[in-house]
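Lecture notes, unit on protein representations.

Consider one protein chain, 697 amino acids long.
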Amino acid sequence: MKKLIATVAIMFAMAGSNAQVIQSPDGALQLTFEVKDSVPVYSVRFNNQPVLLKSKLGLQIDNGPSFTEGFGIKDFKINKTDETWQPVLGEVKQIRNQYTELIVYLAQPAWQREIAIRFRLFNDGLGLRYEFPEQANLNYFVVKEEATEFALPGDAKAWWIPGDYDTQEYNYTTSKLSEVPRLFDKSYDGNASQTIAPGTLQTPLMIKTGNGFYLNFHEAALIDYPALHLNLDAGKFILTSHLTPDAQGKKGYIQTPFHTPWRTVIISKKAADILTSKLVLNLNEPTKYENTDWIKPVKYVGVWWEMIMGKSTWSYANINNVHLGQTDYSKLQTNGTHAANTNYVKKYIDFAAKHGFDGVLVEGWNEGWEDWFGKSKEYVFDFVSPYPDFNVAELTGYAKAKGVQLIMHHETSSSATNYERHFDTAFAFMNRYGYKAVKTGYVGNIIPRGEHHYSQWMVQHYQRVVNKALQHQVMVNSHESVHLTGLHRTYPNWIAAEAARGTEYEAFGGNNPEHTTILPFTRLIGGPMDYTPGIFQTKLDYYFPGDKRFVQTTLVKQLALYVTMYSPLQMAADIIDNYDRFPDAFQFIKDVAVDWDDTKILSAEPGDYILMARKAKGKDEWFVGGITDENARILTISFDFLPAGNYEATIYEDGKDADYITNPQRYHIYKKKLNSKTRLEAKLARSGGVAVSIRKI
């Protein structure tokens, strides 16, 4: 006992003068850490202005004393790193990773336990995480909740969606943080799987402070841990970490040694700088793959949109009680609306080959869609049994002869356990028939029953999918999955994800015109999104007379999304017949790149507009995309990003009377010679856009 008391005295003697201060490499950001009354706290300033006030750190655990108090500083280290690396696929060719690192080693003498908190301070923000070394008195523990705080200096404007353990598929609400409690219950609509976490907000969360700072809160390198939400104290303007629980209400099961994901804050005085930040990527580990030559960007078309809007079906027959392996589909009468049939898919393959697309996605090709949803049914799909009218061997041979690849679709109906049981046969099937990419889906409530889409077990599951895909050299595009956290640096075959409200909702109830001006500041901070743009026929009464549904965008805005919504996996999502109706506008989709050497944000404001330029990988070609919200506006394009020389631009702009409600398909295309000194005034209609392709001459 005397030895323990002595240790405590030594520790807290050290803590008497324990403030540690580090600066970002450019000196603008300053982070201060201290142990105050045995509680670890930190704060952040930008050019001596407060960004984050003193905020507490720690974790609460179920099976022992919590890591929230009783601390003293045992030791600390300060390191500096400045390196560059090249992403396999990305928005820029090269990324600089420069930061100042502070590692604080803390001890809880009363319980003879240790923990480290690692901070990395970049020029554009910070990351922090908790690290638990292997130790005698801490082998296994269960996280009850994190206690990481982000204390803001006052009320702030926020672009937010409500906390939900199972979906991010909501339109964004724009409000002051103080207004969130009043607006919370109106901030969400229905979803196939939904578990609202009252009083919490999802990450990435974008805010603008009263003193003009743009802050983005998220996490990086989410592995073997529940996904992060943020609990809001709207009176004190404090955000506190809130983890997704599992079926038993627990958060995380931990065995030391272990470290949590990074908690990230991107900080800037300009909104455009949020979009150029690579902080989340830099906090992930370098790729673990020795060979990445098989990971390629993909531009594709697909048998999809017509089923989303109800023109065709995924299912083969009009019955609702099938048993996979027992139901003989060859004896069933087809419903006549099944789109994934051999002849129709050949039409898509021909179109892809003619117009230079890499792939064709086909949904509804496999048995089981007749009663796939809403039954909490474990065994729905086996991922290898095609419907009678879908000839896999014939179609893959046909596609290969045309230089086109088929893209696999694995809808799991959220039966993750069933998918894992079929991993080996499903991915071997893909290898046998030459599929190089798979779109996974998790519609509905998760099986194991009671698990959530963002719980620790499901986070582990998504990782198992990526690892299994690696064994078979398959790229993964995950839908209804957990938000991305930069893991495509470490696992570059996780090529894209949905994990937000995408184009499909235009047929379910609509995406607000501002939606795509917010997503790059929120969801895409974590990684590329398969948003599925390119809808030219925006009014659905074209197919169903009297139908009031419409895509809330002009045609030109759909073109611009190929620049503003980054993904190395980009779909031309409309029914291909509509592209034949507008071949001159479709040329932009054919021309636009999906992998980039450089990206320039020309101007941006979340919820209002985005204007950016990108340089195609390995080519003297640039593409500009600009979009606006429900307000018409003029965006000034300065071409000073162009290297010296002369260029020819093809400009796609909203027509004189274009409007996303009344005249969405009015557009004007013209060519213009330009150089780096040229400026162009682009007039965007309501929910409109501008798109420019540029070639050196």
